[in-house]
Specification:
This protein has 85 residues and is an alpha+beta fold. It has one domain. The protein has two helices and seven strands; from the N terminus they run βββαβαβββ. A four-stranded antiparallel β-sheet has the order 3-2-1-4. The protein has a three-stranded antiparallel β-sheet with strand order 6-5-7.
Amino acid sequence: MIKWCHNAKTGEIFSYNQEGELTDFPRGDFLAYGDYLTTQFTTKEEAIQWAKEYGQCLKCRSSRKPDENGKCRFCGEIVVFSHEK
């Protein structure tokens, strides 16, 4: 089954295959980007919508949805979207 992933650090949206517990998800991306990755989207459109709402918090080193002031709800830093870099 094809699944989709959003990388908040790079803004990339890409697909990978998953069958049961087996996957061809790129290990290098997982090791390099960790919590910046959001996986398991069933359609590319879902991943695109997510990318519009979730950016990167450089302090938390994670994908975060900003509050009404554009800041991370956990640490208070500005959430940056890849198209804003």
